[in-house]
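Translate sequence into structure tokens.
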Amino acid sequence: MPSPFKSVIVCVLVVLAAGVAVAGNGDFVFDHLSLNVADPGKAAEWYASHLGGTPDGDSAVRFGSVRLSFRRSATSKPSAGTVIDHLAFAADALPAGFSEDPWGTRIEIVARKTGDKLHHIHVLATNPEATMNWLAQSFGGERTRVDGLDVVKFGTVLVAVERVDREPAPSAGHVIDHMGWATQNLDAAAAGLTSAGVKFTTQPRTVGDLRMAFVEGPNQLRVEIVQR
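Result follows.
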């Protein structure tokens, strides 16, 4: 049977421990990843059938409590070399290694018989120390070491940051557009982040039933904060 992936050569280094992410400071909770694709419905079906995601409406899937939300875009670029470089999944039925989904998301397959199917996320940084400190201080993460990696821990979500010499491309507009945290009180959270010097690219606003804002981290790492 032919592989559903395109072959891709890559380097990697972020671990996402399986499951739900609950932040250790305040009420921030790791919530979602947003992907820009040409056909959100087909992308959701693809991630459900090939990687075992649980359908969540017509244009999203869940891996544990982490939601992959697909948004329509005809112009998004591949994730390779961006600040959010790739996603990794545990799938014993597929060969371990690196691949690409049909819309340009770089994917790592890892062999793991236990744990959730969403395994890790990969972030690139020219200054890993600054990026890890920004994540820890902004969203209440705990810096630690796991499996030999320096990581920032958000409950069961572990983000390790790899040093690169050249500035990675920003995540906005690429297929992996941003990561998202949720909070119970966006306005209070925004006030705290603003006082800490965090840069807001979109101030808190209401969109439908959702309160949301965007902030920007080192290397133009795009992060959404939502209040549902």
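Note: Residues 40-51 form the longest helix (12 residues).
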